[in-house]
Every structure is written in structure tokens, then in C-alpha cells.
Design goal:
SH3 type barrels, 3 helices, alpha+beta
């Protein structure tokens, strides 16, 4: 029988001590990057059926299962999903929307020279 951390705090602590064991969960349960377990943040949720943008509303944990509750910001419909902490190949992937924005903006900035950015900044002020 597998032994699981008893609480969400114990799970996060175990993740910090054993990062390789929980790489598949670090997208959401990482204190350093997503303070507050990501509550209120937007996530691109992707699975074999499609994808959508959802706001993380709640995180619960019991007996090795992380339960995530989401709200669709466009429709206010709720959606729930469960993740077994031992499943290293989940069927659903969550990508923090802020990470996507950062990648897009860094790509845009990389395509401009410093002079072009300064000119643009002068036009905006």
C-alpha cells in the first residue's frame, strides 16, 4: 500500500524535499512560483478532448488525490478534476496562463532591437 502525505501542506513540503518524485505536479503546487497554490490564477487546461482557459477556484487534497475546482471566466461554469499524485503520466495538463503570456511577450521583445523598443516607448509616453 502506498503511503501519502496526510495534508496538502505535507504534500507541498514533500514536493520541496523530493522534487523528482513530483515533477508531474509542480505546475500547480509549487510555493516559490505560484504563491497561494495558484488560487485565482488562470490556467490553460488541455486534455485529449480539447482545451480551455479556467480560473483555479479551489485545491483540496486527501488520500493521494489532489482535487482542483475551476471556473470558466467566460461562462462562470464550474469544472472539477482529480489528480492521483502517483500518476506520473496524467491525461490532463495545466499551464499557468501567466507563463504563456511571459513566453509570448519575451518572444515579441526578442524580435526587436533596443532602438526600436525605445522608439516605441517614446511614442507611448
Amino acid at each position: 500500500m502506498d503511503e501519502y502525505p496526510n495534508t496538502l501542506d505535507e504534500l507541498v513540503t514533500d514536493m520541496e524535499r523530493n522534487p523528482d518524485k513530483y515533477k508531474h505536479l509542480q505546475f500547480i503546487l509549487n510555493r516559490q512560483k505560484h504563491i497561494g497554490l495558484g488560487l485565482g490564477q488562470l490556467y490553460l487546461v488541455v486534455n485529449e478532448l480539447g482545451f480551455g482557459l479556467y480560473r483555479l477556484n479551489d485545491v483540496d487534497y486527501r488520500n493521494g488525490i489532489v482535487r482542483l475546482s475551476f471556473i470558466n471566466p467566460s461562462t462562470d461554469n464550474s469544472a472539477d478534476m482529480s489528480l492521483d499524485i502517483t500518476n506520473k503520466h496524467p491525461q490532463t495538463f495545466l499551464i499557468n496562463w501567466k507563463d504563456i503570456e511571459d513566453m509570448v511577450y519575451s518572444g515579441i521583445v526578442a524580435n526587436y532591437t533596443d532602438n526600436e523598443l525605445l522608439e516605441l516607448n517614446n511614442e507611448l509616453t
